[in-house]
Amino acid sequence: MAIVNTKEMFKKAYQGGYAIGAFNINNMEIIQAVVDAAAALKSPVILQVSSSALAYARAGYLLAMVEAAVKETGVDLALHLDHGPDFETCKMCVDCGFSSVMIDASSLPFEQNAELTAKVVEYAHKYDVTVEAELGRLAGVEDEVNVSSEHAFYTDPADAVKFVELSGCDSLAIAIGTSHGAYKFSGKAELRMDILREIQKLMPEYPIVLHGASSVDPKVIETINAYGGNMKSAAGVPEHILREAASLAVCKINMDTDIRLAMTAAIRKIFAEKPDVFDPRKYLGAARKDIQATVEHKIKNVLGSDNRAL
Ligand code: G3H
Ligand code: 13P
Ligand code: ZN
């Protein structure tokens, strides 16, 4: 019944051939939905906070709500900084009680990325906080993570080995064809599983992280579009590919877009069908219920982490 780092979680996930879901949190409803889903299915879970989430909700509020969720449900979870932009933000999160941080220096040249990551590792490890880093670049359009596809590139397996040795990071996010947001593929959805397999061969037992792993359920997109939305060409990573990645070295699968979509669909539907509703608890309550159902579906059918609580 605590906020724990990712070490034990990843070790068990690797050995068990499943992955831990890392869900982005931005407000109370999302925190409750994700933690209640994990509790209902006895699953480990990672709650992650981006720097724009920190700016929106403020660290103290998020931390207090996460602590309340742990106390109420008894779930052991990791509280993780997602895409930490610099040493100072990582340090601030370590100092205020996060159990895991990501330093995302993937836009820097290899040596500088490794150097900055090593600096974060040195600080975080003093407090038993685990560190995720990123090598390679994902395409995507999001507030703090904005990379056009011509600036995205796949992770080189030999570089990954060198990077982990140099930086001492506890897990590594790799680029194998996923991207952030709701528009991931214009043609066939494919990932470079050969790169993942090669990295696993070179670094057995080492936990790999997959960002940009929302599946963008066509039924949810249909609902959004039916109730006034405009997301016609949205597409995500098919669930069977994520399941395969989870059975290999991928121990952490990041999903934010699917939470946003579930929330948007629920709220659009209520506003369209019940125009008299103006109590936020009515539409945010419906959104919370649908987010929980989404997370439960992922735990059971994609991650395989049900009944694996620490
Ligand atoms: O990878 C990015 C996450 O989806 C967080 O996005 O920076 O808009 O909170 P955000
Ligand atoms: P999605 O946009 O696919 O949900 O990815 C989220 C993510 O990688 C957060 O770090
Ligand atoms: Zn990401």
Q: Main traits of this protein?
A:
3-stranded mixed sheet; globular; binds glyceraldehyde-3-phosphate; 11 strands; TIM Barrel; binds 1,3-dihydroxyacetonephosphate; alpha/beta; 8-stranded parallel beta barrel; 12 helices; 310 residues; binds zinc ion
Report on this structure.
There is one protein chain. The chain has one domain: TIM Barrel. The protein has twelve helices and eleven strands. Strands 1-2-3-4-5-8-10-11 form an eight-stranded parallel beta barrel, surrounded by nine helices. Strands 7-6-9 form a three-stranded mixed beta sheet, with no helix packed on it. It is globular. Bound molecules: glyceraldehyde-3-phosphate, 1,3-dihydroxyacetonephosphate (13P) and zinc ion.
Gyration radius over CA = 18 Å
- Beta-strand residue percentage: 15-25%
Mean pLDDT metric: 95
Instruction: Write the element-wise H/E pattern from the N-terminal end onward.
Output: HEHEHHEHEHEEEHEEHEHHEHH
Please identify the structural class as seen in this structure.
Answer: alpha/beta
- The global form is globular
Looking at the structure, the CATH topology is: TIM Barrel
Query: CATH class, anyone?
Result: Alpha Beta
- What small molecules does this complex bind? glyceraldehyde-3-phosphate, 1,3-dihydroxyacetonephosphate, zinc ion
Q: Characterize the largest beta sheet: strand count, sense, and whether it forms a barrel.
A: 8 strands, parallel, barrel
Any guess at the CATH architecture? Alpha-Beta Barrel
For the record, give the distance between the C-alpha atoms at the N and C termini, rounded to a whole number: 10 Å
Total helical elements: 12
The structural domain count equals 1
Count of distinct strands = 11
Strand adjacency order, main sheet: 1-2-3-4-5-8-10-11
* Helix share, percent: 40-55%
Segments where pLDDT lies below 50 for 5+ residues?
141-146
Question: Quick one: CATH superfamily?
Answer: Aldolase class I
